[in-house]
Amino acid sequence: MTFRAPVRDLAFTLQAVAGIDQVAATGAFPDYDADLLGAVLEAAAQFSEGVLAPLNRVGDQKGSTCVNGNVTPAPGFSDAYRQFAAGGWTGLSAQAHSGGQQLPKALELAAYETVHAANMAFGLCPMLSLATIEALETHGTDAQKETYLTKLVSGEWTGAMVLTEPQAGSDLGALTATAVPVGDGTYKLTGQKIFITWGDHDATDNIVHMVLARLPDAPAGPKGISLFLTSKYLVGADGTLGERNAFHPVSVEHKLGIHGSPTCVMAYEGAIAELVGRPNEGLSHMFVMMNAARLAVGVEGVGIAERAYQHALAYAQERKQGRSVWTGQSNAPIVDHPDVRRLLSVMKAKVAAARAICLSTGVAADLAQHAPDEAARKRWKGREDLFTPIAKAWSTDVGVEVASMGVQVHGGMGFIEETGAAQYYRDARIAPIYEGTNGIQAMDLVGRKLSQDGGQSARDLIADMKETLAKLPKLYSGKPVERFANAVEAVEDATMWLLDAKADAKRGADVLTAADAYLKLLGDVTGGWMLAKAALWARAELDAGQGDPAWLEGKITLYEVYAANVLGHVSSRLATIGQGGALLERMSVDVLVG
Amino acid sequence: MTFRAPVRDLAFTLQAVAGIDQVAATGAFPDYDADLLGAVLEAAAQFSEGVLAPLNRVGDQKGSTCVNGNVTPAPGFSDAYRQFAAGGWTGLSAQAHSGGQQLPKALELAAYETVHAANMAFGLCPMLSLATIEALETHGTDAQKETYLTKLVSGEWTGAMVLTEPQAGSDLGALTATAVPVGDGTYKLTGQKIFITWGDHDATDNIVHMVLARLPDAPAGPKGISLFLTSKYLVGADGTLGERNAFHPVSVEHKLGIHGSPTCVMAYEGAIAELVGRPNEGLSHMFVMMNAARLAVGVEGVGIAERAYQHALAYAQERKQGRSVWTGQSNAPIVDHPDVRRLLSVMKAKVAAARAICLSTGVAADLAQHAPDEAARKRWKGREDLFTPIAKAWSTDVGVEVASMGVQVHGGMGFIEETGAAQYYRDARIAPIYEGTNGIQAMDLVGRKLSQDGGQSARDLIADMKETLAKLPKLYSGKPVERFANAVEAVEDATMWLLDAKADAKRGADVLTAADAYLKLLGDVTGGWMLAKAALWARAELDAGQGDPAWLEGKITLYEVYAANVLGHVSSRLATIGQGGALLERMSVDVLVG
To answer: Which family does it belong to (chains A, B) (predicted)?
Structure first.
């Protein structure tokens, strides 16, 4: 089936829910206006639908290969990447002085959602370039920017994040790769790294690796890690490419999904590298990249969910079985059976909620940098920090869930690989794992983001939700209002409970036990809040006689679907949040082995 | 990692929760006693661990092939099947006069759980023989029993269920295969069938197909379908095999998982067949097989979940990352991190609940047939009917969920196929689809099972739950009791709501919209009820100074984990149950396409 990028919904969400007009109002994006927003999304849609989506299946079937220290991507991928770069898609949000288009991050994320939906394995390549760009913009020297940044922004080279080692995954403090100063300001980098996404390929002349490693005299643990830049080919002072550097891919992994994305084991054998930022502060420097990448992974979750939804909806319109209780038609399309309609309705509602969360996080990131006054920037930074783990974890869980529902809508055909639904189920499964597992996101949320400002960002969020809640009775009566009211109250209760627990040093296990359920609660309710905002906006448009009435009415119905099928989860989240670490401690390893 | 069949837990669940002693007390199983139960489970464990588990990965990697109208299973599978048959595993519950061991169904299901856990693709082959045996026992003529049944019971031949056609999946009434009388009492069967599990292979001399087809003068729709038996090789009056019959596999499907199970497209081209049962009543005859198969598929869900759980637990004990908040150990095994412990604890609780539901359904099926008085048989039949869709749907959803959690526990390694966790995630995904999708199960539950006896079976269940609830304060105080009380109340409310809605012919869409959430609610609460029964039994054992104290204490903790992490879901199920069909009707296709 043909992928159609959800351009109208992306534009609506950016405007009505995420509030991109506030970003425009900062004046930091001189070229940006609503027309440009539409043009960028249309062009992204055209590329994603026309070039990337048709390669999705061949990428899955052929995957990439690693022979003699060189990776060959799946057929068509390298050529598609070069078209992508030529179209300027790697420089949307980069600074103008590096050749970028200096557009809002939020718009870039929306454009990339179409890329990930069309071809998630492909999208990883530019996604990691964007993270590299962000790290160099923040921590690179002028010379590094001059040499590497412009090439990354133009897409002539790609970037890779090089963190994980076999013994150092979630715990990067355990990594052992080393970088020894040569004496001329450069370093020799040695070690083996795993799970290096697009660590090698033949789509570009050069590849820039951002690598975490230890200096010879570095302290043990996370405070002895530095960030280095090394490139596949050495770059001369005049920017020309020299000889191949001393690192290469050892193999590509045989994975459950995203076969089109080469996941490399990389060996660095005295590779010439440069320090980026300050010695022993690599982990905090890398966090700049990781936070951007985490939000981008959330958008992957939205993209794959959108794709799976479209695929399932198309099948449900074509596939005919049995009599519809609504239409009375025999041999009716299965979309006219309530249980299938329910599945599709919940899928659509969750996709819309996840999209709104991710794009709102993007707007928060834009405003954290560009809001006119310091207080506003601080407030938006707090929102961005609070939302990033939710955007990553909640949206990628939605990706897996919706992809699985998509398989289910297909019935037996869903299990047959040729149908295509199974690929989304396989591809989607990586997103809750990489860039920090969703468990790590939850710990980041409760351990750092929730309390870094004494809980102020969470309180601001609750206040914003209550503002929406106050308007809701204009639009709905009864349960759709009650459910949101209960949900906001649950967020408030859970937040207070957690802040209390965090204040007691002995309750560390209680906090960590609650983390996942708290993140899910916040995601569920934030998603509902955003769909409520969308519904209110739609109502205002309808009242003003603007827009497509049926489409806008759909937004009003969508919140009701979400309220009935998702917001009801809040009480189960509360039970889980409050269970306490002591209970799990009693579930000892002996009991687990049982 | 090595699979260990959960023999102790299977025996405990059969006794403490499912109540297999009541089955023994009927006197219908002369050879059965508690010692035999232990011996059967130990022997099943030995075979599953020693022969089947080691073939699981090769089955996934090599799959089966179809060349020139013959299917070759994955390496080792045919030989393993012959060992399996020689061990008597295809005749555990069959009648003694057919060569069976006449043991309780519930025990057979427990033994087969170890088979499915060890190698789900393999287990499908004998599972379908068992369903064929049950159909022939019920509807076969003496001659058919003589010719076919004994060979199926001995495992010398295997059986296959042949229902689906491309246009006839959930709606079997749409099938078009035909059977034309030849005049000598046999029929010529013509048509194409899809999704025929183990429809062809080389493990046995012959294969018996139970095929749904239409007689020439049959009415249209579901009331014109008859059940036929046809075999790969014709069988002479003396039981010797004759020439190959006119049907063959056209291809095997390329599937997401269970690669070791050949899923055949079958062509019947005038195959000689016999009628089974009465003309035009094939669908109801086939339901005998389907109900047995549905429960068996539920057990597959339990098996794959158990396997995924064990795999994840072993990894979590080996893999070391970061400092444990409990032990203070740095580089601690990840099982000592609360979020991983939570995942594993919830996995274990859900596996135990699903196991208890399936084995209790098996006991109900045994008692429905063999309880001493008519009233008791009727009551147990009602329980079996009510539980079958729950056992199938809830347990297979648990299979997918636990397999996905297992991938998550592995972090990045979970996405690498060599690790093995990904195979369970792929294999598990079929179980919510085949033998009637879980949506079909939910419709069966609310459309037929709930009201066939005016709701009496549901009321009986609620009464049984309340009996357990009354005992719970002996063991727990506070939330573990409250949560179950709320949960039982929710079941009661939802059941009354549904019975009311069903009484109103105009509310058909409301009922169908509620179906999935009602099944999930009933599954969640029934699972909790069973873990509560297990905890009470464990407490009694402890009080009597019997058994392994630590293991029994674990059962008491497990209910608490389930109560905190699952029973809290009830309120969200209620919101979904009550949403009404009108809301989904407003989510029209236009809105969905958006």
So the answer is: Belongs to the acyl-CoA dehydrogenase family.
> Could you tell me if residue B546 is inside a domain?
yes
pLDDT digits (tens, 9 = 90+) for B174-202: 999 999 999 999 999 999 999 999 999 99
Q: Which residues of B196-221 are buried (b: 16+ CB within 10 A; e: fewer)?
A: bbbbbbebbebbbbbbbbbbeebeee
Two structure tokens written together for B457:
């079976």
Show the domain range for A496: 438-585
- Of B270, B279, B277, the residue nearest B180 (C-alpha): B270
**B121 closest CA partner among B55, B49, B40:** B55
| Banded pLDDT at A569 (limits 50, 70, 90) | confident
Taking residue A327's Cβ as centre, other Cβ atoms within 10 Å add up to: 11
Read off the pLDDT band of A572 (50, 70, 90).
Answer: confident
ipTM given for this complex: 0.98
The two tokens of residue B538 are 């464990």
**pLDDT average, residue stretch B215-239:** 96
Min distance A164 CA to chain B CA atoms (Å): 10
**Amino acid letter, residue B537:** W
Q: Is A42 a catalytic residue?
A: no
Q: Mutate which of B256, B264, B310, B346 to test chain A, going by most A C-beta atoms within 10 A?
A: B256
Say yes or no for a CB contact (<8 Å) between A169 and B321.
yes
Assigned domain for A71 exists? no
- CB-CB neighbors (< 8 A) of A400 in chain B: 404
Say how far apart CA B394 and CA B437 lie, in whole Å.
Answer: 11
Mean predicted confidence (pLDDT) in A230-245: 95
User: How far, in Å, CA of A65 to CA of A61, rounded?
Assistant: 12
Mutation site, A9, A252, A261, A325, interface B, largest B CB count within 10 A: A325
Average pLDDT over residues B323-348: 97
The distance in angstroms from the start CA to the end CA of chain A is: 48
A413: left (phi over 0), alpha (psi -120 to 50) or beta: alpha
Q: How many CB pairs under 8 A join A and B?
A: 286
Q: Could you tell me if residue A452 is inside a domain? A: yes
Find, among A215, A201, A195, A197, the residue nearest to A276 by Cα. A215
Residue B89, domain member (yes or no):
no
A chain contacts of residue B560, beta-carbon cutoff 8 Å: 583
Buried b (16+ CB within 10 A) or exposed e, B120-135: bbbbbbbbbbbbbbbb
Element (H, E) at A376: helix A374-409
pLDDT the model gives residue A1: 64
CB contact under 8 A, A561 and B584: yes
Extract long-range pairs of B491-494: CB within 8 Å, 24+ residues apart. Answer: B491/B461, B491/B462, B491/B465, B491/B521, B491/B522, B491/B525, B491/B570, B492/B462, B493/B574, B494/B518, B494/B521, B494/B573, B494/B574, B494/B577
Tens of pLDDT along A28-56? 999 899 999 999 999 999 999 999 999 99
SS3 A447: helix
CB contact under 8 A, A512 and B326: no
Q: What is the Cα Rg of chain B in Å?
A: 24
- A587/B550 CB distance under 8 A: no
| Alpha-carbon gap, residue A193 to B520, rounded angstroms | 44
**What residues of chain A lie within 8 A of the CB of B590, using their CB?**
550, 554
Contact B550 A591 (CB under 8 A): yes
| Options B165, B274, B300, B435, the catalytic residue | B435
User: For A575, which residue in chain B has the nearest alpha carbon?
Assistant: B564
Total domain count, chain A: 1
Catalytic residue among A134, A165, A384, A435: A435
Residues A244, A69: Cα–Cα separation, whole Å = 12
Per CB-CB distance under 8 Å, the chain A contacts of B478 are: none
